[in-house]
Amino acid sequence: MNEHNNSDRVTYTSKHRPWVLKKFIELGIDRSFAMQIEKAIKKSKSRVVIEKIISNINSVDDLAHLVRVPMRRD
Fold this sequence. Notes:
- The chain has helices at residues 2-6, 31-44, 47-56, 60-63.
- It is mainly α.
């Protein structure tokens, strides 16, 4: 984020500087799960959802409901 805020490159998001980290939630070592969570958050396109995550979510378990988990078949 520091690189983004201090870059001389002109990009779409450069007009909206500085970025501020509002929330950090460690999702473990599973990159694909982290990417699924990120995709679900971005797909919602909802400021309300993002504000709820910032104010109320503190663990991976709280975020897991955003990602569809396939039902197990026996």
